[in-house]
């Protein structure tokens, strides 16, 4: 076996191992069964400290006056929220922002599919909401501060829009007047200003806080290692990510009443929950120190994040206020980047770029701007492939030239093997001198393949993680580049009147779409630039490789398969042209006939002109 074939087989084996390992680590997610009769959740509060549940809760038991979940939803007045991109309402019990829908996004690609529900009230199957309040200090009791079940009244505004903020008001029994002004911009950022006016005769101290709480993990969570879902926090430039599955392992902190992780933020930061495509985040003003807390109540399966600001002292007749922002919406790269440019520290890192962020970030940046220029993400992926191949062309050219020179040296290498006999050391020394003399690097043939592996994984990360690929169409039947090709060879791509096997079926692995089959053919044609290896083992490996890859990548995202097809096509063209410039005429058609045993093996045409 010559060194060229050794290198190619080594690169093939490495590619197989890496991709197979990736496929085993990140299998298709199981569909979570949702019980349509799931009972509504009822939760209670204790506003003594910002903690779990619908409100701060550190102590067990029901606080007098706490309402049931059904009452909060059915009988409580609400303030409508209506913008070009959002719809929902704010509950006047607790002043919760607990009903929010994203108008621009639907659950599936079907036009009649429901709009994505971002936040849900306590009575919904999946409660998820934002709550603000004050923790009492010196001179105040629990009844003197607003909590989860405080009955707010509307002081100003009727509907929350981008032009009309809403102000809520509540008077405490001891003469403290609390106001909460809520505004929203044209995208997904709320601005919440909490104020307290001391109309009493005694000085009081209290601490403002914000809470995002949810019961259970997100519905339909994929649980892929490639994707972070859970708590995401930025504390003075340090990013912290805690998966939902890791939160039950947090340390129990009696002071917080649950398992918790506490981070002190001195100048700038934020904390919240990030899911696959959506995110909710509490963002105090830059320059304001605060305590960022991530909590989990395993008894009730409640996840919670908090931003607790410093205690304020309010003298009689004095008014103080504090403003925080709440992001609740889609993780659109451009929108989040604009918020970062407006002062939210490293907000773009709320998108999970992964370990290869130095590749995923620029790859997505280029893909995003190509899509803005072209208007179609599929064609943008093809253009991105062209750019990547252009950048790697010098390396590819050097590799192909080296491979061509190796072919020229093949007769001399065979003579060396005959002369060396069983003396392996003599053979190696002779070959090294031959390589040095002719300026050939036998390992360079592997470089293009090795370089493609991190690019392939980075593009896979970009396609899987970023919202811009979600439900992005290409042509015809490819309506979602982030999902596998929906067509199937088992029903002749829709010509036969039955549906392909479900993804959970064993036969699903045989249900290849049109794009994966084209991928296998493109790899097979690329092999035919050279005659099959004379060694039977090598020939067998090379013969099976395209079809194994076809099945391995068959259920990956369509955008990724499209990239691989474009890459193979461009590589075929590059290699053909380079081989011609080096004096070789690839006999592609002849090699195909020989592989099908329709042409004698002794009739190769891949010779020098």
Automatic annotation (TrEMBL):
<keyword id="KW-0813">Transport</keyword>
<keyword id="KW-0472">Membrane</keyword>
<comment type="similarity">
    <text>Belongs to the OXA1/ALB3/YidC family. Type 1 subfamily.</text>
</comment>
<feature type="transmembrane region" description="Helical">
    <location>
        <begin position="440"/>
        <end position="460"/>
    </location>
</feature>
<dbReference type="GO" id="GO:0032977">
    <property type="term" value="F:membrane insertase activity"/>
</dbReference>
<dbReference type="GO" id="GO:0051205">
    <property type="term" value="P:protein insertion into membrane"/>
</dbReference>
<keyword id="KW-0653">Protein transport</keyword>
<feature type="transmembrane region" description="Helical">
    <location>
        <begin position="377"/>
        <end position="397"/>
    </location>
</feature>
<feature type="transmembrane region" description="Helical">
    <location>
        <begin position="7"/>
        <end position="26"/>
    </location>
</feature>
<feature type="region of interest" description="Disordered">
    <location>
        <begin position="36"/>
        <end position="60"/>
    </location>
</feature>
<comment type="function">
    <text>Required for the insertion and/or proper folding and/or complex formation of integral membrane proteins into the membrane. Involved in integration of membrane proteins that insert both dependently and independently of the Sec translocase complex, as well as at least some lipoproteins. Aids folding of multispanning membrane proteins.</text>
</comment>
<comment type="subunit">
    <text>Interacts with the Sec translocase complex via SecD. Specifically interacts with transmembrane segments of nascent integral membrane proteins during membrane integration.</text>
</comment>
<dbReference type="InterPro" id="IPR028055">
    <property type="entry name" value="YidC/Oxa/ALB_C"/>
</dbReference>
<keyword id="KW-0812">Transmembrane</keyword>
<dbReference type="InterPro" id="IPR038221">
    <property type="entry name" value="YidC_periplasmic_sf"/>
</dbReference>
<dbReference type="GO" id="GO:0005886">
    <property type="term" value="C:plasma membrane"/>
</dbReference>
<dbReference type="InterPro" id="IPR019998">
    <property type="entry name" value="Membr_insert_YidC"/>
</dbReference>
<dbReference type="GO" id="GO:0015031">
    <property type="term" value="P:protein transport"/>
</dbReference>
<dbReference type="Pfam" id="PF02096">
    <property type="entry name" value="60KD_IMP"/>
</dbReference>
<feature type="compositionally biased region" description="Low complexity">
    <location>
        <begin position="47"/>
        <end position="60"/>
    </location>
</feature>
<protein>
    <recommendedName>
        <fullName>Membrane protein insertase YidC</fullName>
    </recommendedName>
</protein>
<dbReference type="Pfam" id="PF14849">
    <property type="entry name" value="YidC_periplas"/>
</dbReference>
<keyword id="KW-1003">Cell membrane</keyword>
<dbReference type="InterPro" id="IPR001708">
    <property type="entry name" value="YidC/ALB3/OXA1/COX18"/>
</dbReference>
<dbReference type="InterPro" id="IPR028053">
    <property type="entry name" value="Membr_insert_YidC_N"/>
</dbReference>
<feature type="transmembrane region" description="Helical">
    <location>
        <begin position="546"/>
        <end position="566"/>
    </location>
</feature>
<dbReference type="InterPro" id="IPR047196">
    <property type="entry name" value="YidC_ALB_C"/>
</dbReference>
<feature type="transmembrane region" description="Helical">
    <location>
        <begin position="503"/>
        <end position="525"/>
    </location>
</feature>
<keyword id="KW-0143">Chaperone</keyword>
<feature type="domain" description="Membrane insertase YidC/Oxa/ALB C-terminal">
    <location>
        <begin position="377"/>
        <end position="580"/>
    </location>
</feature>
<keyword id="KW-1133">Transmembrane helix</keyword>
<feature type="domain" description="Membrane insertase YidC N-terminal">
    <location>
        <begin position="78"/>
        <end position="366"/>
    </location>
</feature>
